[in-house]
Structures are given as C-alpha cells and as structure tokens.
Amino acid sequence: MNCLSPSILSADFSRLGEQIKELDEAGAQYVHIDVMDGMFVPSISFGMPVIRAIRACTDRIFDVHLMIEEPGRYIDEFAEAGADLITVHAESCRHLDRTIEKIKEKGLLAGVAINPATPVSAISCVLEKVDMVLVMTVNPGFGGQKLIPYTVEKVRELRKIVDEKGLKTDIEVDGGVNLSNVEELMDAGANIIVAGSAIFSGDVTENTIRFLNIINE
Ligand SMILES: O=C(CO)[C@@H](O)[C@H](O)COP(=O)(O)O
C-alpha cells in the first residue's frame, strides 16, 4: 500500500497539535517523527515528551525515525510514548539485530534506515526481519535539503531484492521529496513517502491532498 508520512520536523511547533490534526483530516496515513540527538546527526529535535503530548491528536501511525546513537537504549520509552513503527539506523546500532528484535518484542513495527552512502547490502541480513526499510535520500539531520540523485538507484535495487524474495517489506524514502520527484521515487519502488518542507510550506491541507492524489493514483 502507498502511504504519505508527513515529517513534522518542518511543522510550526507553536501549532503542532493543530497541524497534526490537519494532516489527519486531509488523509495522511502516517506521521513521521524525526528524533535527533546532536550526536548521530548534528541537530537536536525532540523526544518522548513531545511524542506523548501529540499522541492525543490522532490515531494515525506514528512513524518514529530515531537518528540517535545506540537507539536500543530507548525502545521501551518510545513504545510507551506512543510509537507504532520505530526505525533505527544500521549505522547507529552496534547490535542491529538485537535492536530490531527489541522493537518487535514491544509489539511494534520495525524499520531499518540507511544513509545515502550506506549500500543496500548493509541491511541484507535483517531484511526479512523488518517491516520497512527507510532509504535516506538526503544526509540526515535537516529538513529542506535537495534529494541526492544516486539514492534513487538504491531504491530501485532494494525494490528488486524485496520483490525477488517475495517479501512485503515497505520501502520508505525521506529527504528532499516534493511534488515534482515523488513519481520518480515511486516508479523506482518506494511506497511510503516522507515529505517535510513540501507539506508544511504553504497550505498544509492543500499540500497533503496534492501528494495523496499522486500517491493514490
Ligand atoms: O529525516 C529527515 C531529515 O534528517 C527528514 O524527515 C526531513 O524532515 C525531511 O524534510 P524535507 O527534506 O522533506 O524537507
């Protein structure tokens, strides 16, 4: 299934609850929540208290993307805060398999993310264990960057592997996605689309509906 996962990193934080309700009413299926620790990526964003607070605003899937060192330390807390899907980076886990198992033991969906310069082969051992692979299409840490073109080929490579193995694994793309390149990413094999600035610059409802019209075509 194709889904839209707007990234609230680009939201107006003074109206966060209101904007999440707007996404929900416009039909976005997921809410993408970027947690950054100032170590794995240069920025610091938000953590469990914010997730706990916005949980009351919507029943949509909370797609929590952990851009933090050794995320395995915090799986219990993110589960308790309201995550439905937790994605950890292959580059940030000393024990990736154990961290994925921990997410699944909590009864949550598990995702693994790879940075632009990390090859698809880095996650081949865990591919059959995860519900989703997140292919970063920018270097993580900031919203509003330009998509790195070579990452589209990684999406194509991953889709081929997933299909050849007969897996149902979702493929998410994140970074620099806009109304002009989303079709190319979907043609390459992505089915969960993250968009931050392209959703929150201007009219949130209108932008969400425009994306959904393409994604659901
Ligand atoms: O994880 C990240 C950035 O590290 C993303 O989720 C961004 O928040 C996407 O923002 P845009 O590139 O769509 O503005």
TrEMBL record:
Its EC number is 5.1.3.1. Keywords: Carbohydrate metabolism, Cobalt, Isomerase, Manganese, Metal-binding, Zinc. The active site is at D34 (proton acceptor), D174 (proton donor). A divalent metal cation binds at H32, D34, H65, D174. GO terms for molecular function: D-ribulose-phosphate 3-epimerase activity; metal ion binding. InterPro entries: Aldolase_TIM, Ribul_P_3_epim, Ribul_P_3_epim-like, RibuloseP-bd_barrel. Gene3D superfamilies: Aldolase class I. The keyword Amino-acid biosynthesis does not apply. Its cofactor is Co(2+); Mn(2+); Fe(2+); Zn(2+). GO terms for biological process: pentose catabolic process; pentose-phosphate shunt. Binds 1 divalent metal cation per subunit. GO terms for cellular component: cytoplasm. SUPFAM superfamilies: Ribulose-phoshate binding barrel (SSF51366). It catalyses: D-ribulose 5-phosphate = D-xylulose 5-phosphate. Substrate binds at S7, H65, G141, F142, G143, G144, D174, G175, G176, G196, S197. Pathway: Carbohydrate degradation. The keyword Zinc applies. HAMAP family: RPE (MF_02227). Belongs to the ribulose-phosphate 3-epimerase family. Catalyzes the reversible epimerization of D-ribulose 5-phosphate to D-xylulose 5-phosphate. This is Ribulose-phosphate 3-epimerase. The gene is rpe.
